[in-house]
Give the backbone structure.
Amino acid sequence: MANVIKEITVTELKEWRDAGKDFQLIDVREPNEYEVANIDGELIPLSTVSENADKVSKDKPVVVHCRSGKRSANAIAVLQMDHDFDNLYNLKGGILAWSDEIDPSIPKY
């Protein structure tokens, strides 16, 4: 059975934040990237996602993001296949889309 990766747009994520929705935001980029630009996600680099699966909530929606959306999709695939998550959303376009559409003060790299 193929796991479908759910997506959320940066606009939807901003709406969730503005509405005070209870969710977890996870950033799967590398620490040096996080230092350049971040949107207050919890840093769990892609290479460590499997061993940090216990840090990912199963009780509320979890939005996973990276720079453009590719690594976060990979992280979600691992968590869904190996750890039975069904509450994960990939941030479409990643932090680049956030910078373009929501907050231009976030540096692009």
User: Anything to note?
Assistant: The domain at 6-101 is CATH 3.40.250.10 (Oxidized Rhodanese; domain 1). The two ends are 36 Å apart (CA to CA).
